[in-house]
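re: the backbone from monday

yeah here it is again, tokenized this time
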């Protein structure tokens, strides 16, 4: 998150740039004092839109928060609004600005794909829509299991499930087990023609478009036949598939045609936080409701909703119709960008109004809970850091904290962990671990000094990406002794402006340099819990690393140190003689007799074990 820099008075650079903004469409980029891109937007008229941000008029809290961070801006003129929209999308992906809507690409819902180009298509579960001529149905989420739907379809219509390529000339030797169980029509052996198979696929289309009656009737008939034939296992299978159909029927929207596909979007905001709720209707059924936390510094709420739709439909199937809680100006631009004549309803009536109200209710409920959740999160992170700075009288606000802990057993496999919290939350990509190389025996003080010396040296050199960030606060797991040893390293490093404390486990005493009297934070307080969290995480991390090293040491063999003896030949020697102790007793001829061990290698092995005898 960018640091807030309150620009009460607009700087001269911005003022001069505003004067020369063109009256053309384009894209603008807002930057903070560090040159970091914090917002990207598009505009029909650059001069009008960018100037709006710097007017003295009242703005929503989220917009004002962004404006207070702006130190400079850039802009690009485009040939059209469509070009501006495409460029804006690319720049958002590139810079990932804090004040833009950022939907996670990894959040992909499943679809059912039917490749109509194949003579005998099968049903596939996919999470990405491609322009490949195939038919896609979905998305499926919120309790609708797409794989259960496919099992239900296959039970009714005997579609193939194998990935074996089937062409006009191909012919399998025999049918698979599914044919014997009555679950497949065996197109691989041409027991069904492409024309008859296509009729079955049409029935699948009918079901996926909302008509449940035919498939339910087929499954009921199969269940009764299986029961009459005392094939109770299959009868139970068909019963479970019928229950799946009944679950889907519970999602039917009354007074809505079965073949209707539409999405409903409601946007709710409290001025700073926001949520967009999407309600997906496919085949006349509500397949799911999803809430998206939405932080966007657009001036108008309708623009926020428009920006969301652009990102949302990059990964989703576009329906025939969308219902929106806010009117959007750029309806034609949205249709052109999505390459579809999309029905856009912003003042719905009847059943559409009810669907929008349902989405609004979900959005309002989510936002209320989200505010409480964010308040709790703030108290446990940034709020706790604020209290920590006050209680310990730190020079810096501890945005970045690093905690160090040592682990060893009797001085062996010594390790040190560096755990990093940024703004009160673990930054696991920043964690680092050290093998202690120079310290002999069990000496935690010296081990901490070695790890901290290496860390601060790399910070000062500035050549290591892993250690380039300067910490605000260093936390040492230990008492006065560990703190004194580490503070000496910090003083000698030439690095300035870093606070250091230690946390002793006995009664959770906090020590500061050059002060023998500890600070006792209130038990259970947010600031003490913060220190305990990072200390415990450092302990967990170093113990895990220590166990890894110890495990490697325990499985290490003397044979691994012999040059030219690889794993295969090492295992051949162990298979022949049992242990490395037995191998030591063997002569060159006996070693050479083992399959794969040539004379030169046998001499190398013998010399390795007897080099001390020769001295």
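seq for it, each position gets an aa:
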């Amino acid at each position: 998150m960018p640091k807030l820099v309150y620009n009460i008075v607009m700087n001269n650079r911005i003022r001069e740039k505003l004067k020369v903004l063109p009256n053309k469409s384009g894209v603008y980029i807002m930057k903070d004092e560090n040159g970091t891109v914090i917002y990207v937007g598009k505009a029909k008229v650059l001069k009008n839109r960018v100037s709006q941000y710097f007017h003295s008029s009242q703005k929503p809290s989220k917009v004002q928060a962004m404006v207070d961070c702006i130190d400079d801006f850039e802009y690009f003129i485009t040939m059209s609004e469509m070009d501006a929209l495409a460029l804006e999308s690319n720049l958002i992906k590139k810079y990932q600005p804090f004040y833009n809507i950022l939907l996670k690409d990894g959040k992909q819902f499943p679809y059912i794909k039917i490749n109509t180009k194949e003579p005998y298509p099968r049903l596939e579960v996919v999470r990405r829509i491609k322009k490949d001529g195939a038919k896609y149905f979905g998305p499926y989420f919120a309790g609708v299991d797409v794989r259960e739907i496919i099992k239900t379809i296959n039970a009714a219509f005997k579609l193939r499930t194998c990935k074996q390529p089937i062409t006009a000339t191909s012919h399998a030797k025999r049918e698979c087990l599914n044919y014997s169980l009555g679950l497949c029509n065996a197109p691989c052996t041409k027991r069904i023609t492409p024309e008859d198979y296509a009729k079955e696929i049409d029935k699948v289309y009918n079901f996926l478009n909302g008509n449940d009656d035919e498939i339910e009737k087929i499954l009921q008939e199969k269940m009764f036949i299986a029961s009459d034939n005392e094939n109770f296992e299959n009868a139970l299978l068909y019963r479970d598939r019928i229950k799946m159909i009944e679950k889907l029927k519970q999602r039917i929207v009354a007074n809505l045609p079965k073949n209707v596909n539409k999405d409903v979007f409601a946007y709710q905001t409290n001025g700073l936080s926001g949520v967009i709720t999407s309600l997906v209707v496919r085949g006349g059924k509500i397949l799911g409701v999803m809430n998206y936390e939405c932080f966007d510094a657009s001036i108008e709420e309708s623009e926020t909703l428009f920006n969301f739709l652009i990102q949302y439909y990059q990964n989703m199937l576009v329906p025939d119709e969308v219902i929106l809680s806010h009117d959007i100006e750029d309806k034609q631009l949205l249709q052109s960008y999505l390459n579809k004549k999309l029905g856009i309803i912003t003042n719905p009536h009847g059943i559409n109004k009810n669907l929008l109200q349902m989405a609004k209710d979900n959005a309002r409920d989510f936002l209320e809970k989200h505010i409480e959740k964010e308040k709790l999160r703030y108290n446990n992170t940034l709020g706790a850091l604020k209290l920590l700075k006050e209680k310990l009288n730190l020079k810096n606000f501890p945005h970045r904290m690093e905690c160090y802990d040592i682990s060893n057993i009797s001085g062996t496999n010594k390790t040190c962990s560096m755990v990093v919290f940024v703004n009160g939350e673990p930054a696991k990509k920043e964690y680092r671990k050290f093998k202690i190389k120079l310290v002999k025996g069990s000496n935690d003080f010296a081990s901490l000094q070695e790890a901290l010396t290496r860390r601060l040296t790399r910070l000062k050199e500035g050549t290591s990406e892993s250690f380039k960030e300067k910490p605000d606060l260093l936390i040492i797991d230990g008492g006065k002794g560990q703190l004194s040893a580490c503070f000496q390293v910090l003083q000698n490093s030439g690095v300035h402006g870093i606070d250091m404390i230690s946390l002793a486990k006995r009664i959770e005493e906090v020590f500061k340099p050059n002060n023998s009297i500890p600070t006792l934070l209130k038990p259970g307080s947010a600031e003490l819990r913060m220190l305990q969290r990072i200390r415990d995480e450092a302990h967990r991390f170093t113990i895990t690393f220590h166990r890894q090293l110890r495990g490697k040491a325990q499985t290490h063999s003397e044979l691994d140190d012999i040059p030219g003896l690889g794993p295969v030949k090492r295992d051949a020697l162990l298979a022949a003689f049992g242990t490395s102790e037995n191998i030591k007793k063997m002569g060159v001829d006996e070693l050479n007799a083992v399959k794969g061990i040539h004379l030169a290698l046998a001499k190398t092995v013998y010399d390795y074990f007897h080099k001390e005898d020769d001295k």
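The two ends are 66 Å apart (CA to CA). Confidence is low (pLDDT under 50) at residues 1-9.
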